[in-house]
Amino acid sequence: MRNRMQDKVVIVTGGSSGLGRATAELMIAEGARVVIVDIDSQKGNGVAAEIGAEFIRVDVGQRSEVDKLVDDVVTRFGSLDVMCNNAGAIAMVPLVDTTDAEFDRMVAVNLGGVFYGTRAAARVMTKQGHGVIVNTASNGGSSPSEGMAVYCGTKAAVVAMSKSSAIELAPKGVRVNTISPGTMLTGMVPDVEGIVDVLDKLQPVGYAAQPSEMAAGILYLASDDAAYVTGHDLVVDGGATAGRAAVGV
């Protein structure tokens, strides 16, 4: 490790599992002081103790909770260097069967949570004169899948909102980027026999990614290695959205 995040104060939402946990672990390995955020207190506290992070329970879909989170972190650590708005909600269901509750939750978490987190972090970072915001989108935002209309719609919105924010915040020393992961083996993968084999075959590189492979992209965007990168959507999907492979060749 290169200590690329030495003494940086980092918040990772959705940090108790999947990409969030992998990101928190990598940030810690690179020297960061990490606060993981999740709605599940029991799991969050357990993961924090295991990886050497701190835990704060927050429902990112609630504006007041996100504002308090950022205020509490800054009060405790004196600054906020990196905000990773990673928490997400998903429902793989046909459009006509999508319930209002499913719609409301995905919009609240996937879009609202990113907006609240970006805004709260920006208020602090613009005063500091520096900071990095990394928002988790999805390659489904640019290459949607059947049965995921609301999910893909929220992720497309995250990319556009982040780019607009990047333009606004760049003169104030704050970078904003998104990462758009492809298929990875997390708790969001359906518990269906043989699904991993199917997912592996859908990826041009031949396998579905581990969360740590996506976390490497977040680390890059958060680090000084990407000091001149803002308003960018980093797609990390093993070539899944690059195009279509030849058939029958």
What does this structure look like?
The chain is of the alpha/beta class and 249 residues long. The protein has one domain: 3-Layer(aba) Sandwich (Rossmann fold), CATH 3.40.50. 43% of the residues lie in helices and 15% in strands. It has seven helices and seven strands, in the order E-H-E-H-E-H-E-H-E-H-E-H-H-E. The chain has helices at residues 18-29, 41-51, 63-77, 100-128, 149-169, 195-202, 211-222; strands at 9-13, 33-38, 54-57, 82-85, 131-136, 174-181, 233-236. A seven-stranded parallel beta sheet has the order 3-2-1-4-5-6-7, sandwiched between helices. Helix 1 crosses helix 7, helix 3 (63-77) packs parallel to helix 4 (100-128) and helix 4 (100-128) runs parallel beside helix 5 (149-169). It is globular. The termini are far apart.
